[in-house]
Amino acid sequence: MLRATALLFFVLLLTNVTAVPEYVEISRGIRLRSSSHDGAGRVEILHAGQWGTVCNEGWDLVDAYVACRQLGFIGVINTYVAPDGYDPVWLTRVNCKGSEKAVSQCRHSSWGKTRCEGRYRADVGVSCRLSSEPSEEEEAEECGPRPYPGVHDFAVRLVGKRPYKGKVEVKVGGSWQPICADQWDGRDAMVVCGQLGYSKGYAKVYTQKSTSQLQGVSTDFSCDGTESFLQTCKHAGFGSYRCEQPAYAAVRCIPRSQSKKEAVVRLRGSAYPWQGRVEVYYRGRWQKVCDHEWDIQDASVVCREVGYGSAYEAVYRARDYYGQGFTPILFNEMDCHGNEKSLFQCGHTPPGSCSHTENAGVRCHSPSSSLQTRVGTAFTDNIMLVLTLFVYR
């Protein structure tokens, strides 16, 4: 009897030790926690035998895409600040290119070194796309939302007589489709224009005569105007929708003009004018910005201030890409909301202990930035492309 009791106790103990919840991906070194939805939750990384979180400082959709792929999903839906995090915070200032197989392979700060503490605590959460095909429930729902593909599979364009105005179309699932004009407003237009490389824009509607009700790939966008990508705004989802009004979303963007005002912000160290190391003019000399707390909202303020669209990427350690420069550091720990007209209107702290190697940089959305993704027909375009690849690699 004693031997049977001991055996039963050992079996129960072994069961408790080896039982692993479904959300834990031990073999992948990454897991999602604190969510009732499959494919969503707070990101946690396994390092030195202990699970820890990731700080959202500098975290963007490309980083989230790598995390979702590492977890075994096919793409990313969204990223957000996840609640109820705990120590340690393993990674901060993650900066992925999108081709990495694991978040730990991306550029990041030293393990365990972070400023995500106390009131600045903000852990990363992601929502990943589970499947490339709609489920049976989605097929049955005529107007049901579907998650959109990974960040690299999504694009925006304008269809019209001018490159800066026209009907808005998004590329989802390999095809270009319009958006219903329901709830479409100026803040949504600002995001579209910013993503296309224009600093400002206005909402329009494209009325189309039809005997049947119009259909769009999405509807009810609710942007706050500071987002860098339309797909990160709140919306009804991507699927097949009947438009409430007989019109599609459209915009009119404002082309970049050469300002006659003396510049107070500039980008240096790049072959292309829409990217580079950030420098600000103050008290008679140009000075750099520290990359501590540097994020996409700060970068978007800079991009619009120099005449381009919203930021495609907030670049850390810009010295590695655009050179170090020889000017002192003026701003540290920038805190922009994304709607400021100048970097000087954002909160910040003195340079403090910021090293001269920790320079902030940006890559802006630009109407001309598509040159980077295709070989130009002119000899000079090819030279510029080679220079850019050399700088980034």
Can you walk me through this structure?
It is a single chain. The protein is of the alpha+beta class. The protein contains seven helices and 20 strands. The longest helix has 17 residues, at 2-18. The chain is globular.
Keywords:
7 helices, 393 residues, 28% strand, disordered N terminus, 7-stranded mixed sheet, 6-stranded mixed sheet, alpha+beta
Write the layout of secondary structure elements.
Blueprint: H1 2-18, E1 30-33, E2 40-47, E3 50-54, H2 61-70, E4 75-82, E5 89-91, E6 123-129, H3 136-140, E7 155-162, E8 165-172, E9 175-178, H4 186-195, E10 200-207, E11 215-216, E12 241-242, E13 247-254, E14 265-268, E15 275-282, E16 285-289, H5 296-305, E17 311-315, H6 319-322, E18 329-335, E19 347-349, E20 361-364, H7 379-392
Parallel strand pairs: 3-5, 16-18
Antiparallel strand pairs: 1-2, 2-3, 2-6, 4-6, 7-8, 8-9, 8-13, 10-13, 11-12, 14-15, 15-16, 15-20, 17-20, 18-19
